Structures are given as C-alpha cells and as structure tokens.
Amino acid sequence: MTDRTGDAGDAAAAPGDAPEAAAPSAGAAPAPTRRMSHARRREQLLAAALGEFGRRGYHLTQMDHVAAAARVSKALLYQHFGSKEELFVEVTEMIVTELTGRLNAAVAPARASVDNIAAIVGALFDYATEEPDAWALVIRHLDKPEVGPGLHELRERMGTALADILLRRRRADPALSPAALEVNERRARLLVPLMYGAMLSMVSWWLEHPDTPRERAERMAVEFIWLGLDRLRHGERLDRSSKP
C-alpha cells in the first residue's frame, strides 16, 4: 500500500495522534505545533511493532496492539504499512541488517576458528542484552519461515558464516581432493544447525538466569561447540552397537 502522507509529514492526524510542539522561549507566544516527520513516524511505528511482535509473537499481534503501543490511530498505522505482513517484513529486515552486520564484524579471517566462534557467541550475547525485543522476536520466529522470508535469510546467513569458519582451512588445503572436500562440506551443513542452536539456546537460558556470570555462560557455549567439533573432526563417533 502506497503511503499517502509523503515525506513532509503525516497527513491530517486521526484522534490519538500526538503532534510535536517546539518549546516556546520565555515570554514568547506558543509556537505552532508541527507534525512528526514521515521518517521519524515510521521509526516510531517500527519500534512499537518490534516490541509487540517480540512480546506476543507474529500470530497474536494485531495492528490494534501496535497502534496502541505507538499511541496513534490504527488509520495512521495503515497509512504507513498496508498490512501486518508488510509491517512484520520491515521489522525483520531491520533485525537481519543489524544482526548480520554485527556477526560479520565479529569474524576476522586471520583469527583462529575457535576465536571466531567465541567472537560470534559474544556478538549474540551483546545483541540479546542491547536489543531484548529483537532477540525475543528472533527466538520466537527463526525456525518459522512461514511468517516471512527475513528470518529464514538470517538463519541462512548464520549458517554460511559458521560453515566458512569450519571449512576455511580445508578449502585452502591443496592436498585435499574435491571428493574429500565435498565430504567436509556435507558434514559442515549438518553441524551448523547444531552450532547456532547451541548458541541461541545458551544466550536465551542466560537471559533467564542473570545470576550466572555472562563470562561463564559464554565460555560454556564455546567449549560445548568447539570440543564437540574437535572430537568429531578427529573421527570419534558414538558406538552403540554393543548396547542391548
């Protein structure tokens, strides 16, 4: 739905929309009110939607909830976003851009793989503490691509980044045959969901148990992932053939 307000500001506001007023100087007549700019209004609505989607989830959130949280009319909300689906897509795109930017910045090609994994874990802990509503939305919807493609893209980007960390040395090894490299690629694709699942679960658990020092929770996540990977890389497998 095309926004009819234009960038100059919101069109005639419906009841409940709060205009902004410039603060008058001492002794001066009150300054005329001015409407919130189009860009600032969209930021306000996206922030309100993020909070509602994070708390309620996509399916339980209604446009009425978002309008009430933003303290605007539902009519004004629909001037900016044509549907709940459109609003959710914009919110998730905002999250994907921010979080993938942080993850990309955390990884350094020259750093040891275990240190890059630790950096990714740290970036996730930072994001969860700094953006709790966005984190709640990610945890609720990351494995539910039916509510929009944005978070599915985030999952794919996370998987690609972790696979690159796992395979960096093997891809650079000239002695590794294409067939052997393909085996490693397939193994990495299986391991990646376990890795980011462990990371996300540990962060969410820590948020619910703040008495646990963050450093301890981060270290446990890294050790769980890295030591498990190391044993698999060295060929260790669980032998259950002797069990009844």
UniProtKB/TrEMBL annotation:
<dbReference type="InterPro" id="IPR050109">
    <property type="entry name" value="HTH-type_TetR-like_transc_reg"/>
</dbReference>
<dbReference type="Pfam" id="PF00440">
    <property type="entry name" value="TetR_N"/>
</dbReference>
<dbReference type="InterPro" id="IPR036271">
    <property type="entry name" value="Tet_transcr_reg_TetR-rel_C_sf"/>
</dbReference>
<keyword id="KW-0238">DNA-binding</keyword>
<protein>
    <submittedName>
        <fullName>TetR/AcrR family transcriptional regulator</fullName>
    </submittedName>
</protein>
<feature type="domain" description="HTH tetR-type">
    <location>
        <begin position="39"/>
        <end position="99"/>
    </location>
</feature>
<feature type="DNA-binding region" description="H-T-H motif">
    <location>
        <begin position="62"/>
        <end position="81"/>
    </location>
</feature>
<dbReference type="InterPro" id="IPR009057">
    <property type="entry name" value="Homeodomain-like_sf"/>
</dbReference>
<feature type="region of interest" description="Disordered">
    <location>
        <begin position="1"/>
        <end position="38"/>
    </location>
</feature>
<feature type="compositionally biased region" description="Low complexity">
    <location>
        <begin position="8"/>
        <end position="32"/>
    </location>
</feature>
<dbReference type="InterPro" id="IPR001647">
    <property type="entry name" value="HTH_TetR"/>
</dbReference>
